[in-house]
């Protein structure tokens, strides 16, 4: 049995905690992945405890060793012809195709690494350009590959039929994604398309004591939210909801954990800070930046509720983290979130882009401690029953050898 390669673009970053959980589960199952990434992210892009180990054990394919990669290509002319045929099928402009030739060199380097380490299959956490890279590697005679689709199909760019046609299997996070893929890519799907959400290790994400709903005697209600600072996460909506609650005399405070490394230039953080000042909420909304997983768990345990106002949310792993920590959740009906939350049963759902609806949902928890306690318990049980972090790891382990 060959080894598994595990490719994460620009690893490690602040959102990669969910991949690290999958890696830990694979290790617990006796699979020791060979870690591969495209290029190094900034040194401060990942606040988690695994960041140093992640950088140490990862081989970065870009920039490739041009001479060694070129020699590999020339020594494997049949594979090179196959890869170039796939390259010619890429859509888009000439500059895009020229850039894709760089991926061909990286693919040659991946093949060299696979031969050195005994890797026979690579799982890539992307359906974007990294999947083109693994496609080229396979066409060169290298390892087979599989993909996890982390966002709706259009987000991952063009040439999806080409990527999926040559994959061994693909993992999808939600039923919504499964319906989209089977409808859009019929005729070019791999032998196995499997629903397996990236979940949470509920043996680690658990409270040290029972959850206590907010009451006026507790002082300000502590609301926690956590995600990368990106417009799709709707933090502006959440801040406006806090303003509406303040205006009706509610004593609430919001802490937003996350940073916008992935957004490019920090503009969204500045926008949120300006909105906070405009609404005179500097004393009620705190944005301390990205946090380690341990710090997030600590804040979840200390908070009375969790809220996320996303406009788009493929699944909502941070929602699962909050539910695993037994705090009630208010979130939007965005993407796959309704596959996690059943409204009024294990959490509260509101429409996206609606500050008043979010404020009303938070207000319901404030007014009804019984509802808060019930959603706390039911949310935890939902994660235990359906969203363990071992699910996707088992799929990778089992499917790579079939």
Description:
- With 402 residues, the protein is α/β, with parallel strands linked by helices.
- It has two domains: 3-199 and 388-399, 3-Layer(aba) Sandwich (Rossmann fold), CATH 3.40.50; 216-386, Glycogen Phosphorylase B (Rossmann fold), CATH 3.40.50.2000.
- The chain is built from 15 helices and 13 strands.
- It has helices at residues 17-28, 51-57, 66-75, 77-88, 94-117, 129-139, 160-165, 175-184, 235-247, 267-278, 293-302, 317-324, 355-367, 369-386, 390-399; strands at residues 3-8, 34-37, 58-60, 119-124, 144-149, 169-172, 192-195, 221-226, 252-257, 285-289, 305-308, 329-332, 348-350.
- The strands form two sheets. The chain has a seven-stranded parallel β-sheet, sandwiched between helices. Strands 10-9-8-11-12-13 form a six-stranded parallel β-sheet, with helices on both faces.
- Helix 9 packs across helix 13 (355-367) and helix 13 (355-367) packs across helix 14 (369-386).
- The chain is elongated and about 75 Å long.
Number of helices: 15
Q: For the record, what CATH class of the largest domain applies?
A: Alpha Beta
- In terms of DSSP E residues, the strand content is 15-25%
The N- and C-terminal alpha carbons lie at a distance of 11 Å
């Amino acid at each position: 049995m060959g080894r598994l390669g595990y490719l994460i673009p620009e690893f490690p970053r602040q959102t990669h905690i969910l991949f690290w959980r999958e890696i830990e589960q694979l290790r617990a199952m006796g699979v020791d992945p060979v870690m591969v990434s495209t290029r190094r992210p900034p040194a401060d892009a990942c606040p988690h405890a695994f960041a140093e180990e992640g950088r140490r054990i990862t081989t970065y394919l870009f920039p490739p060793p041009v001479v060694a990669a070129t020699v590999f290509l020339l020594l494997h002319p049949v594979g090179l012809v196959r890869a170039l045929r796939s390259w010619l099928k890429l859509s888009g402009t000439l500059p895009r195709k020229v850039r894709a030739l760089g991926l061909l060199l990286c693919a040659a380097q991946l093949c060299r690494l696979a031969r050195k380490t005994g890797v026979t299959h690579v799982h890539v956490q992307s359906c974007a350009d990294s999947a083109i890279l693994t496609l080229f590697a396979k066409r060169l005679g290298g390892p087979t590959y599989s993909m996890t689709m982390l966002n709706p199909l259009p987000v991952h760019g063009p040439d999806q039929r080409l990527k999926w046609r040559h994959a061994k299997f693909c993992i999808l996070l939600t039923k919504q994604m499964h319906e989209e893929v089977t409808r859009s890519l019929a005729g070019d799907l791999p032998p196995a398309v499997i629903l397996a959400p990236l979940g949470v290790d509920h043996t680690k994400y658990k409270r040290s004591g029972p959850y206590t709903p907010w009451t006026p005697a507790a002082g300000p209600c502590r609301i926690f939210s956590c995600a990368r600072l990106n417009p799709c996460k709707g933090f502006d909506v959440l801040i406006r909801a806090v303003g509406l609650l303040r205006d009706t005399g509610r004593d609430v405070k919001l802490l937003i954990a996350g940073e916008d490394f992935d957004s490019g230039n920090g503009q969204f953080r500045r926008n949120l800070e300006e909105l906070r000042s405009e609404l005179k909420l500097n004393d009620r909304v705190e944005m301390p930046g990205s946090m380690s997983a341990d710090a997030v768990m600590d804040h979840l345990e200390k908070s009375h509720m969790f809220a996320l106002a996303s406009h788009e949310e493929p699944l909502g792993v941070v929602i699962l983290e909050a539910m695993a920590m037994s705090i009630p959740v208010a979130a939007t009906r965005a993407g796959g979130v309704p596959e996690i939350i059943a409204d009024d049963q294990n959490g509260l759902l509101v429409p996206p882009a609606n500050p008043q609806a979010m404020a009303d949902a938070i207000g319901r928890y404030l007014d009804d401690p019984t509802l808060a306690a019930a959603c706390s318990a039911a949310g935890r049980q939902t994660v235990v029953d359906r969203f363990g972090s071992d699910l996707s790891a088992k799929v990778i382990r089992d499917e790579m050898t079939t």
